[in-house]
Amino acid sequence: MAGHPDLEPLVHTSVNEAVYRRLRDHLMRGDYAAGEVLGIQELADAFGTSAMPVREALRRLAAQQALEPMKSRSMRVPVVSRARLEDIRRTRVLIEGTATAWAVEHIDGDTLATLRGLAEQIGQSLANPTSVRDGLEHNQLFHFTIYRAAQSPSMMAMIESLWLQSGPYLRATRELMHSDERPTAEFHAAIVQAIEQRDAGKARVAMERDICWAFDKLTAHRAMLAG
């Protein structure tokens, strides 16, 4: 089983919630590979907690379809398949494109400045293979800043579940982000420009293009898929 990235002991806030959020973020960024088994006691030791909050966090993540139960009572990151890839791709395009269009009228000047800065950082990370992790974190923050601005808790719950399910695919595209196949256009800058122009339709299309790039590249690289 692979080692767990950057798992640090947790301080008490709500330990259950802290464990859940930490695991959620790692899954969203693709820190765990498709098919990887997450052991309860190993995670508990890494976080410096008992097994109970880890078990509860894994149960919540399984309910969001980010993990699947194993006979050993551990959880596994679902295996990548072509059908699953296409289903998540279509759903993300529909829901996240809509959320982006809804968000345009609610994004103020300060938020726009934040998005512009994040877009620049993401663009810089594409040219620097050593900054993959930073780029993924900035990418997550960029997207969720927009989606929160849509002011739809129901939509946010669906988007979070979709990102959790997308984690293994994001992991598989990391090497593409720093190859000759990386995006020729900076989609994030195009999204920011559309929001700045208050053009909801243009923002939606730019977001859809950003989402589709990684999924389409993975579909083309059939060796990465389980079938």
UniProtKB/TrEMBL annotation:
The keyword DNA-binding is assigned to this record: yes
Gene3D superfamilies named among the record's database cross-references: GntR ligand-binding domain-like, Winged helix-like DNA-binding domain superfamily/Winged helix DNA-binding domain
GO terms assigned for molecular function: DNA binding; DNA-binding transcription factor activity
Keywords for the protein's UniProt record, in alphabetical order: DNA-binding, Transcription, Transcription regulation
Cited SMART domains: FCD, HTH_GNTR
Boundaries of every HTH gntR-type domain copy: 13-80
UniProt protein name: Transcriptional regulator, GntR-family
